Amino acid sequence: MRTEIVLDIETQNTFQDVGGHSPELLQISLIGCYFYETDSYETFLEEDLAKLWPRLERSDRIIGYNLFGFDYPCMQSYYTGDLMKLPTIDIMAEIVKRIGHRVKLDDVAHATLGIGKSGTGLMAVEYWRKGEIQKLADYCLQDVKVTREVYEYAMEQGKVSFFDRMGQKQDVPMPIAPPEPNVKPPINLSLGI
Question: Which DSSP category does 86 fall into?
């Protein structure tokens, strides 16, 4: 049974609010996930994160877009273990390895799937500030859905595409092997042991 998890986070504040470009300074508003094991989408507010950590620790793989550069550094201040030790596929990091520069998820999704994101991260911060939690959840889960579909495309086709600065569609080889079964010991790494 697949225990992979597709993950995306939203924050309560912006880099401008915290006076720098360090994700560690941002506060999480919500994390959206797709769980292959249950074929379900779920969200976790900041106060619910303790329920998410054991599920991440038991997963065969965590999938996301810019996990290493944004999501994980932001999440790390909430988690007592080391997120970088969890089995992870960061699609953006894989693209950067192959072409040497960053590409927006929206550009990859449009070129690969013909669909895109539903807005920008700044919209998510506004939803949080206005208390529009359902809109925030819907926005985040749309990003999770797009990331999941890009990941599945890469698994099936061995590539993704993006639109370059000239608007030309470029293919990026991205062979992704199925995850190795999780062989970690059955302990909760998020406990301060």
Answer: S
